[in-house]
Write a structure and sequence with these properties.
The protein is 65% helix and 0% strand. It has 424 residues and is mainly α. α5 runs parallel beside α9 and α12 (208-225) runs parallel beside α17 (290-310). It starts with a helix and ends with a helix. This is Squalene synthase.
Length: 424
C-alpha cells in the first residue's frame, strides 16, 4: 500500500483528478514532504493558482511535474513558470526590440520585485506575465538553495535570448549555442534542482555536459519538427550552415519542386540531433528516484519517437508530424526504468535505420550514429541499469501515466477552447 500511495499520491491528488473528470477543477496540491522533514510543505493560497497556470501553459510537462516527489515538485513548477514567462517575452513579436532586449537581460530582478508584472503581451500564455506577482511570491517562498538555481538560470537564459534576438542561427556551433540558451540551461537547472533536493546524487547536478545534452536533444527535435509552423510565423531556427547547401532560402524547402533536397536537409539535421542520444542514456542511468526518472525519461523517448516519425518524411514540409496519442500513452507507461528506455530507443533508431535512403548525402553519418546508439541500447551494454522497480511499482506508474495523460489532454482542450473564446 505504501508503494501505491507513493505513486498515486496523497488522497488530495486522486480527489483532484476525479473531481476534474466530474466537471470541476481543483489545482493539484503538493504531497507530503517525507524526504526532508516528514511534514507537509508550506501551502500558500497562491500555490493552486501556480499549478493552474502550469496546466494551462504546458502540455508536455504538467503531468510529470505534478508527479515529482516532495518539495521538488513546487520548485520545478515555479522554475517552469518563471522560464515560461521569460519565453513569452521572447516570443512576443509586439514588443519592440529596444524594450524586449533589456527586459530579457534584467528579467531575473523581477523575481525579487513583489509588484512587477507585464500587462501588454499579446501571447497566448500572457497570464504568467500578467500575474507574475503570484509566481514571484511563490519563488521567494522556496528554499534559498532552489531560489539560487532558478535565479541563476533565469539570468543566463535571458541574456542568451537577447543575444539571438538580433542575429540568426548561422553555423552548427551557433545552433548548439542557441539551443543551450533556451533548453540546455533548463536541463542544467533541473539537474541542479534534483541534486539540491537530495533525491539525486550530486553528480547529476554537477555534470553540466550531460544535462545540456538532455535539453539540446529536446530542443533540436522541436525545431526540426516545427519547420513549417515557424516559417508561417516568420521564425527561422534551422542552421544556415546546413540548409544553405540545399536551398537559397530556408523558405524554399517548402516548395514542392524542392521536396527531395528538403528531405535530405531534414535527414542531416535529424542525424545531428541523434548524436545527443548516448548522453541521454548515460544521464538517465544515473537517476535513482522514480519520479525524477519518469520526469526525465518520458520527454526523451517522445523525442526519439518524433524524430523517427519525421525522418525522411515529406510531411514535415507540408503539415504537422506528431506521434499518435495512443503511442504517447504507451511510451509514458513503458519508460519507467533504464532497460525499458534502452529498448524503446533501440526500436526507434532501428526504424530510422530501415528508412535511410542509400542516396542520402548523410546516410553514412546516420548509420554511424545509430551504430553507437545500438551499442549502448543492447542488453548488457555499458550503460548502468537499475533493477529496483518492483512489478507493483511499475503497475502503479502505468496507472498514473494513463490518468495523467487523460487529465492533461482534457485540460489542454478546455484551455484551448477558453483562449479561443477569449480571442473571439
Amino acid at each position: 500500500m505504501e508503494l501505491l500511495r507513493k505513486w498515486l499520491g496523497h488522497p488530495e491528488d486522486i480527489y483532484n483528478l476525479l473531481r476534474f473528470k466530474m466537471g470541476g477543477y481543483r489545482a493539484v496540491m503538493p504531497r507530503m514532504d517525507t524526504h526532508h522533514t516528514g511534514s507537509w510543505p508550506p501551502l500558500h493560497c497562491s500555490v493552486p493558482t501556480c499549478y493552474r497556470y502550469l496546466n494551462q501553459t504546458s502540455r508536455s510537462f504538467a503531468a510529470v511535474i505534478q508527479a515529482l516527489d516532495g518539495e521538488l515538485r513546487n520548485a520545478v513548477c515555479i522554475f517552469y513558470l518563471v522560464l515560461r514567462a521569460l519565453d513569452t517575452v521572447e516570443d512576443d513579436m509586439s514588443i519592440p526590440l529596444d524594450v524586449k532586449v533589456p527586459m530579457l537581460q534584467e528579467f531575473r530582478s523581477h523575481l525579487y520585485q513583489p509588484d512587477w508584472k507585464y500587462t501588454e503581451s499579446k501571447e497566448k500564455d500572457r497570464q504568467v506575465l500578467e500575474d507574475f506577482p503570484t509566481i514571484s511570491m511563490e519563488f521567494r517562498n522556496l528554499s534559498k538553495v532552489y531560489q539560487d538555481v532558478i535565479s541563476d538560470i533565469c539570468h543566463k537564459m535571458g541574456v542568451g535570448m537577447a543575444e539571438f534576438l538580433e542575429k540568426k542561427v548561422d553555423s552548427l556551433r551557433e545552433w548548439d549555442k542557441y539551443c543551450h540558451y533556451v533548453a540546455g540551461l533548463v536541463g542544467i537547472g533541473l539537474s541542479r534542482l534534483f541534486s539540491a533536493s537530495e533525491l539525486e546524487d550530486s553528480i547529476v547536478g554537477q555534470d553540466t555536459d550531460l544535462a545540456n545534452s538532455m535539453g539540446l536533444f529536446l530542443q533540436k527535435t522541436n525545431i526540426i519538427r516545427d519547420y513549417l509552423e515557424d516559417q508561417l510565423e516568420g521564425r527561422e531556427f534551422w542552421p544556415r550552415e546546413v540548409w544553405s547547401r540545399y536551398a537559397k532560402k530556408l523558405s524554399d524547402l517548402a516548395k514542392p519542386e524542392n521536396i527531395d533536397v528538403a528531405v535530405q536537409c531534414l535527414n542531416e539535421l535529424i542525424t545531428n540531433a541523434l548524436h545527443h542520444v548516448p548522453d541521454v542514456l548515460t544521464y538517465l542511468s544515473r537517476l535513482k528516484n522514480q519520479s525524477v526518472f519518469n520526469f526525465c525519461a518520458i520527454p526523451q523517448v517522445m523525442a526519439v519517437a518524433t524524430l523517427a516519425a519525421c525522418y525522411n518524411n515529406q510531411q514535415v514540409f507540408r503539415g504537422v508530424v506528431k506521434i499518435r496519442k495512443g503511442q504517447a500513452v504507451t511510451l509514458m507507461m513503458d519508460a519507467t526504468n533504464i532497460q525499458a528506455v534502452k529498448a524503446i530507443i533501440y526500436q526507434y533508431v532501428e526504424e530510422i535505420y530501415q528508412k535511410i535512403p542509400s542516396t542520402d548525402p548523410s546516410s553514412n553519418k546516420t548509420q554511424q550514429v545509430i551504430a553507437s546508439i545500438r551499442a549502448m541500447s543492447l542488453p548488457g551494454s555499458p550503460v548502468a541499469s537499475r533493477h529496483h522497480y518492483s512489478p507493483i511499482y511499475l503497475s502503479c506508474a502505468m496507472l498514473l501515466a494513463a490518468l495523467s495523460w487523460q487529465y492533461l489532454s482534457t485540460l489542454s482542450k478546455a484551455t484551448e477552447e477558453y483562449v479561443q473564446a477569449g480571442n473571439n
